[in-house]
Amino acid sequence: MIRVLFVDDHEMVRIGVSAYLSAQPDIEVIAEADDGTVAVDLAFELRPDIILMDLVMKEMDGIEATKRIIEEWPEAKIIIVTSFLDDEKVYPALEAGATSYMLKTSKASEIANAIRSTYKGQSILEPEVAGKMMRKMRSKTEILPHEELTSREMEVLLLMTQGKTNQEIADELFIALKTVKVHVSNILAKLQVQDRTQAVIYAFKHSLVN
């Protein structure tokens, strides 16, 4: 049986979800709490397999409760179940140590499946939450200068590495000479180099060509 501690300050939510979960053959709701303070105490006392944690509660919110539990018990598996998708709730909750993040709009069966998956060591995120995290990770990742090049600019750069002149590049790509010059100018600016030679050196240095 997967032993669950359910934390939510809305009694009707606890009653409804707990009833569904308790009807599952592999899940047992061993305790409930209506605020973070009680949740922390119960977590340490009972050591449940899974903690379903609401975020907004009166005495202590779910983020602080999650943080305190993880600090003392790093192996705890906490699933946030909330109505909030705003950044000031999502990121702090996950950074505090929550394993999964679900919305209260989810079906009870989806929450049950999230419990099973989280118990097995997986991290379950609502699609919108997963999208937020990917965008945040991307924003933190350093973007290399050549990643700013368009596909056409990359084509021009690769032809530059072959020693082709602007006219030869124009002929090969069937574009105007003036257009090639614009592309070359953009390439130099984006790669933050002074001339074509430095651009070619950059291309080889970053393995853009064999």
Lay out the secondary structure.
Layout: E1 2-7, H1 11-22, E2 27-33, H2 36-46, E3 50-53, H3 62-72, E4 78-82, H4 87-96, E5 100-103, H5 108-119, H6 127-140, H7 151-161, H8 166-173, H9 177-191, H10 196-205
InterPro entries: CheY-like_superfamily, NreC/VraR/RcsB-like_REC, Sig_transdc_resp-reg_C-effctor, Sig_transdc_resp-reg_receiver, Tscrpt_reg_LuxR_C, WalR-like
Pfam family, one: GerE
Protein name: Transcriptional regulatory protein LiaR
Cα-atom Rg, whole angstroms?
27 Å
Overall 3D shape? rod-shaped
Distance between the termini: 57 Å
CATH architectural designation of the largest domain: 3-Layer(aba) Sandwich
Helix-residue proportion = 40-55%
The CATH superfamily label of the largest domain reads Response regulator
Q: Work out the count of structural domains.
A: 2
- Count the beta strands: 5
What is the CATH class designation of the largest domain?
Alpha Beta
> What's the number of helices?
10
From N to C, what is the helix and strand string?
EHEHEHEHEHHHHHH
Q: Do you know the CATH topology of the largest domain?
A: Rossmann fold
How much β-strand is present in the residues?
5-15%
Main location: cytoplasm
Domain Response regulatory: 3-119
Pfam families: GerE, Response_reg
Domain HTH luxR-type: 142-207
Brief descriptors of the model:
Arc Repressor Mutant, subunit A, 10 helices, 210 residues, Rossmann fold, single chain, 2 domains, alpha/beta
